[in-house]
Each structure stands twice: as structure tokens, then as C-alpha cells.
Amino acid sequence: MGRVAGLGCIVCRRLALGETLAEVHHIRAGQGWKRAPHHHTIPLCYLHHRGADGIHHIGTKAWARRFWPEADLLAEVLLALGGSPSGG
Ligand SMILES: [Zn+2]
Ligand SMILES: [Zn+2]
What we know:
There is one protein chain. This protein has one domain: 2-Layer Sandwich (Herpes Virus-1). The protein is globular and about 30 Å long. Helix content is 40%, strand content 9%. By secondary structure, the chain is mainly α. It contains six helices and two strands. The structure holds zinc ion (2 copies).
């Protein structure tokens, strides 16, 4: 999924930190929603992924409070990838 990582970290984008080198984070379905669309991946930089401010470090819930919920970010990623909701 090079397209996702190619966006740069979605959190850094929102924080206006610019495009940072991103890793692909796979969102676990079943936490905040029932059924997920096919690809649940968002780009996160090392810091926001596994680092001190990382979702895997502080936990999904704390991370969502500190930044944004994964579902919110996923919606933005899908938009940024240019896919229309119905277009696939
Ligand atoms: Zn980041
Ligand atoms: Zn991850």
C-alpha cells in the first residue's frame, strides 16, 4: 500500500508539521465501529505510530483523545487518496 504511506503522516499533516515519512498503521476493526470498509490503513510517522506519542505506545483510546480517532483520520486518508465514497 504505497499510496497510503506516500501521503505522509496524517497526524503531522493535521498538526501542520508538513509531510513526514510514514509507516502504514492497520486499524483494528471492531473498536469504534461494527463493519469496516476494505482497507483500514492510515499513514503514521514513527513518532505517532510507535514512538513516545505513538498509538501503539500510549494506546488507542488515549491516542484518540490526544490526537484524533482513527476512524476520523481514516476518512481523511480515503479522501486524500481521491476515492469517492461510492467509486471504490
Ligand atoms: Zn506524525
Ligand atoms: Zn500500527
